[in-house]
């Protein structure tokens, strides 16, 4: 049964939202038991909610049956914890997106997180048409636009303002590439839009950001929540040291796996989650390469040496 939670609106959407990673079997099928266990692992951590899809959740590797299974398990387990859940329903066409939206709503999704169709770069009128049509399908269920350059284009602040005025259920954005100045510019067009970055709360919350969709939360959710709360409460002097540690963790501990070892984000996110005690495993869907136990050990060694405060309880 769905636990009662705050309805997500432009005013209430905030905080730390954790990306859910899918555990695969050796035949690239969803391991449903491990997935349920993984979601339960975020109970009591202080996160504001969880979400599926995106790069971390390998939405691009899911057929319709897998998407439905993921969505049903994620909604049921999140609500059992009293956590709201956003379902990533991105796809290559409006038609497929609409089908996934219907699945998500049946399962009880609290919101939908959508990237633009990305095989061909959408023109301005196509962006507006896409958002209008998916919002029509979603009805009262709110929409968060995932603004990623993997969709091959940016949406200007002026267009975001136009969309927000035309589509009241468009409540927020996920844009890890937005600068503090970008946030301020967007908020001039849509003052109440909930704009999210990643774990960079220290710079983006003072500019008007509301929180983060953070894959890094998988390593140590309570510590990321601590950083968010310090920044949200305006205690930036206290937050700076922790913000600097997470910045180093990202740039010195994780990014070398991308730049030197050629791992994609989904593989790196698995490495940090396994290092943090998650049960998702390291296997990514083929043809994308996976991280290894050596990567996990390397990340833990770096953290023990350079940022032991970030180590999760029980991993020290």
Describe this structure in words.
There is one protein chain. This protein is α/β, with parallel strands linked by helices and 316 residues long. The protein has a domain at 15-233: Aldolase class I (TIM Barrel, Alpha-Beta Barrel). It contains 11 helices and 8 strands. An 8-stranded parallel barrel has the order 1-2-3-4-5-6-7-8. α3 runs parallel beside α4 (124-138) and α9 runs antiparallel to α11 (293-306). The protein is globular. The mean pLDDT is 95.
Write the layout of secondary structure elements.
Layout: E1 15-19, H1 32-40, E2 49-51, H2 64-80, E3 85-88, H3 94-107, E4 111-115, H4 124-138, E5 143-146, H5 157-166, E6 170-174, H6 180-189, E7 194-197, H7 201-204, E8 211-214, H8 221-232, H9 236-259, H10 265-275, H11 293-306
Helix pairs in contact: 1-2, 2-3, 3-4, 5-6, 8-9, 9-11, 10-11
């Amino acid at each position: 049964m769905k636990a009662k939670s705050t309805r997500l609106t432009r005013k209430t959407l905030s905080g730390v939202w954790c990306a859910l990673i899918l555990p695969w079997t050796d035949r690239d099928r969803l391991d449903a038991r491990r997935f349920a266990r993984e979601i339960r692992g975020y109970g009591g951590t202080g996160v504001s909610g969880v979400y599926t899809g995106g790069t971390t959740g390998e939405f691009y590797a899911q057929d319709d049956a897998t998407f439905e299974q993921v969505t049903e398990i994620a909604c049921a387990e999140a609500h059992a914890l009293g956590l709201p859940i956003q379902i990533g329903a991105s796809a290559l066409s409006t038609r497929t997106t609409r089908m996934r939206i219907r699945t998500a709503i049946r399962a009880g999704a609290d919101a939908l997180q959508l990237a633009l169709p990305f095989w061909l770069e959408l023109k301005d009128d196509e962006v507006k048409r896409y958002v209008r049509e998916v919002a029509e399908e979603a009805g009262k269920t709110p929409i968060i636009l995932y603004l990623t350059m993997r969709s091959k284009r940016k949406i200007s602040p002026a267009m975001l303002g136009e969309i927000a005025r035309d589509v009241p259920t468009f409540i927020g954005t996920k844009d890890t590439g937005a600068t503090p100045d970008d946030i301020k510019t967007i908020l001039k067009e849509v003052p109440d839009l909930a704009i999210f970055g990643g774990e960079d709360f220290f710079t983006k919350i003072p500019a008007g950001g509301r929180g983060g969709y953070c894959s890094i939360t998988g390593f140590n959710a309570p510590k990321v929540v601590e950083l968010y709360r310090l920044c949200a409460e305006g205690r930036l002097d206290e937050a700076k040291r922790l913000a600097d540690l997470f910045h180093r963790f990202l740039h010195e501990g994780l990014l070398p796996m991308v730049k030197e070892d050629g791992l994609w984000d989904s593989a790196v996110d698995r490495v940090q989650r396994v290092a943090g005690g998650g049960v998702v495993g390291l296997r990514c869907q083929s043809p994308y390469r996976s991280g290894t136990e050596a990567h996990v050990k390397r990340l833990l060694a770096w953290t023990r040496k350079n940022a032991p405060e970030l180590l999760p309880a029980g991993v020290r």
